[in-house]
Amino acid sequence: MELPPATPHDACPPEVCVDFDGVAGCIAEAREAAVAFLRLHVPHARTTFRDDVLLVISELVTNAVRHAPGPLTLKLGLLPGGIGITVRDTSPSPPHSRTPDRTGGRGWPIVQSLARRVRVVPGPNGKTVHVELAW
């Protein structure tokens, strides 16, 4: 997958923003975008960090596909000491934990356990979930 160019100004940390149609196939596309971003901007990141980033993206995008009809946006950006992951979708409902069963319920607790910081911001047409992961 080809990514849009990173922010060209040297004073700004690299970031990428990718829009998806919100169907199940976009989960793999979001992971591909993350792999490309990490290879380009964090080539020496340890494998466990890359795996954590991909897991968080998979969970956030999967939740958006399941619970928010319509398009979604994934944004990745470098932060001091880590990476920021943002997913914007069309559902006004915030993510929440539920009792795990055969169909799910494990994702949001996993995201919270891996994150340095999690923030959910409601908007007029949905919500934005911000997650920060430390190196």
UniProtKB/TrEMBL annotation:
<keyword id="KW-0418">Kinase</keyword>
<keyword id="KW-0067">ATP-binding</keyword>
<dbReference type="InterPro" id="IPR003594">
    <property type="entry name" value="HATPase_dom"/>
</dbReference>
<dbReference type="Pfam" id="PF13581">
    <property type="entry name" value="HATPase_c_2"/>
</dbReference>
<dbReference type="InterPro" id="IPR036890">
    <property type="entry name" value="HATPase_C_sf"/>
</dbReference>
<dbReference type="InterPro" id="IPR050267">
    <property type="entry name" value="Anti-sigma-factor_SerPK"/>
</dbReference>
<keyword id="KW-0723">Serine/threonine-protein kinase</keyword>
<feature type="domain" description="Histidine kinase/HSP90-like ATPase">
    <location>
        <begin position="28"/>
        <end position="130"/>
    </location>
</feature>
<protein>
    <submittedName>
        <fullName>ATP-binding protein</fullName>
    </submittedName>
</protein>
<keyword id="KW-0808">Transferase</keyword>
<dbReference type="GO" id="GO:0005524">
    <property type="term" value="F:ATP binding"/>
</dbReference>
<feature type="region of interest" description="Disordered">
    <location>
        <begin position="86"/>
        <end position="108"/>
    </location>
</feature>
<keyword id="KW-0547">Nucleotide-binding</keyword>
<dbReference type="GO" id="GO:0004674">
    <property type="term" value="F:protein serine/threonine kinase activity"/>
</dbReference>
